[in-house]
Each structure stands twice: as structure tokens, then as C-alpha cells.
């Protein structure tokens, strides 16, 4: 009887060990989904601030926004309002911050150092405004606003995830040769972005 009980115990132990091993193998084989690059098109910046969520890939009206656009100004949902008296500028309710990286979009595969991330403040935006200082350059002759090549923005989102984006155009439908004098076609952002929803430090 003792021998039979011992054999059953050993069999149970073997089955349990095999089951745990299979679980470990499945965990090892479980791959993290690849981060996809998405293009956001014609995000209007014409009326007040337009709020955008990377996780939802759309314009939102809630407090769950990451960046917002108004004219050539881009703000993040973290820190403080630049203009506390402005009713149009949304309050910062999240923990968003941004790090500006000089590189190609594809080459930015790792998150920058935490110390490089900045939030909006009462005296300065995290993404500087003005020609040559922020994301664009302005041609005083043609009045054309052009994104600065090789400038990538890595964003810590309002809820602590990460995304990166590069601006492609400031004109509706992102034409190759925009007409800056057609005011109805200005203040429309087109940009590439990649959103990292997992707790990893790479894109």
C-alpha cells in the first residue's frame, strides 16, 4: 500500500512540474506586441486648443488628453497653464511631459533619460514656440511654416505611458507644396506617432 501511495505521489509531482514548465515556456514565448507607427491627419488647431489622445488615436474633449494644438502652439497635459487667465487653454490634469530628440523618427527606439522630460509651466511651454525654437521654421518671404526636419518629440502621456511623434505638415491634407496664403488651409496638423502601451522602455 505504501509503495502504491509513493508511486502516486511521484506521478502527481511529475505532472505538477511538467505543468509549471509548460506555463514558463508559454510566458517565455509570449511576445510583446510590436509598436505601430500611425499617421494622424488634419488635426485642426484653428479654434482654441484641440486635445489629442495617443492611446485613443483621436481628438478628445475629456481630461484624458496628452497633447493639444492651438495655431503653432503645442502643449502637454502636465505641469501648469502658461496663461492662467486663459479660458481656452485647458488645465493640466495629467502627468504628461515631453523630451525633444534630434534624430530621425525611426531611429528613436529608446526612451530618453528622465531628466530630459519637461512639463508646461506658467512661464514657458515644454515645446518652445517661435520659428526655429520649437517644431517649425517660418519663411518671412513666402510665409510658409515648415516642420524642422529631424526633430522628434517623445511624450510621457497623461497616464504615464509613452509615445513619440514627428510633425509632417501644418496644412490641410499635407500637400507637397502648400499655399501659405490660403488661410483656410492652415492650422491643420499631420503627424506620425507611435504609442507604447506596455511597461517597456523602447518603441
TrEMBL record:
InterPro entries: HmuY (IPR025921). It comes from the Bacteria. Residues 1-23 form the signal peptide. CDD domains: HmuY (cd12105). Keywords: Signal. PROSITE patterns: PROKAR_LIPOPROTEIN (PS51257). Pfam families: HmuY. This is HmuY family protein. It comes from Flavobacterium plantiphilum.
Amino acid at each position: 500500500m505504501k509503495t502504491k501511495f509513493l508511486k502516486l505521489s511521484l506521478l502527481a509531482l511529475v505532472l505538477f512540474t511538467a505543468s509549471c514548465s509548460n506555463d514558463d515556456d508559454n510566458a517565455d514565448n509570449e511576445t510583446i506586441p510590436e509598436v505601430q507607427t500611425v499617421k494622424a491627419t488634419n488635426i485642426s488647431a484653428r479654434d482654441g486648443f484641440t486635445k489629442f489622445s495617443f492611446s485613443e488615436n483621436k481628438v478628445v474633449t475629456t481630461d484624458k488628453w496628452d497633447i493639444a494644438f492651438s495655431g503653432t502652439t503645442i502643449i502637454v497635459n502636465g505641469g501648469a497653464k502658461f496663461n492662467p487667465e486663459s479660458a481656452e487653454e485647458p488645465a493640466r490634469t495629467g502627468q504628461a511631459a515631453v523630451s525633444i530628440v534630434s534624430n530621425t523618427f525611426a531611429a528613436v527606439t529608446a526612451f530618453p533619460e528622465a531628466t530630459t522630460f519637461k512639463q508646461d509651466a506658467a512661464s514657458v511651454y515644454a515645446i518652445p514656440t517661435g520659428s526655429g525654437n520649437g517644431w517649425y521654421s517660418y519663411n518671412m518671404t513666402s510665409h510658409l511654416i515648415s516642420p524642422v526636419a529631424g526633430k522628434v518629440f517623445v511624450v510621457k502621456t497623461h497616464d504615464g505611458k509613452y509615445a513619440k511623434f514627428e510633425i509632417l505638415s501644418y496644412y490641410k491634407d499635407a500637400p507637397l507644396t502648400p499655399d501659405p496664403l490660403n488661410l483656410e488651409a492652415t492650422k491643420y496638423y499631420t503627424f506620425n506617432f507611435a504609442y507604447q502601451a506596455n511597461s517597456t522602455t523602447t518603441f
